[in-house]
Give the backbone structure.
Amino acid sequence: MSIAARRMRQTHQPTFAELYVPKFVTVLREGYGLSDFHADVLSGLTVAIVALPLSMAIAIASGVTPDRGLYTAVVGGFIVSLLGGSRFQIGGPAGAFIVLVALTVERHGVEGVMLATAMAGVFLIAAGLLRLGTYIKFIPYPVTVGFTAGIAVIILTSQIRDLLGIRLAGKEPGEFIPKLEALARGLPTASGSAIAIAALSIAIKQKYAAS
């Protein structure tokens, strides 16, 4: 390839149609064989083994039934694979959304979650069209780390009741401080068997994570 051709290729700006053609279509155009299908099946099974239990756990932590997490993971996974823009992209549940989903379910119900998801999709499409993704570089690193750490703390506190088998007189508060206060008052009702199972599960997880 000549120098002029390389420069032209580097400076070529993709058209609207090129940007939004699903990778599924472009992969078929380039050629998709049996070996590619075999590799994708193995990769998909590997992701499913992790994603399906995780999706049920996230659904429970978000205040909905486990089947809704399964539906979302399966349907969402197919949609991302079909319409995604990268051949290496994997669609799956994200624990960081537990806080947002749980609060939305509590205040607006499952219908509110569906509406919020649709609105988020529209906003993401608009951000892509306006090329706003480049401005993420102006967000300081401590802000993103603090945001992620805050979510981790909130997710942890949301699981303390089930982890210790605490029984509360009323509904568990969604806010952070009232939640801790309610859990502290319910500590005398903690279940020894629940604590033992939780400790055993954590120990097994740590053992296999270290190996």
Observations:
- The radius of gyration is 22 Å.
- The mean pLDDT is 80.
- The first helix runs from residue 3 to 11.
- The chain is about 70% helix and 0% strand.
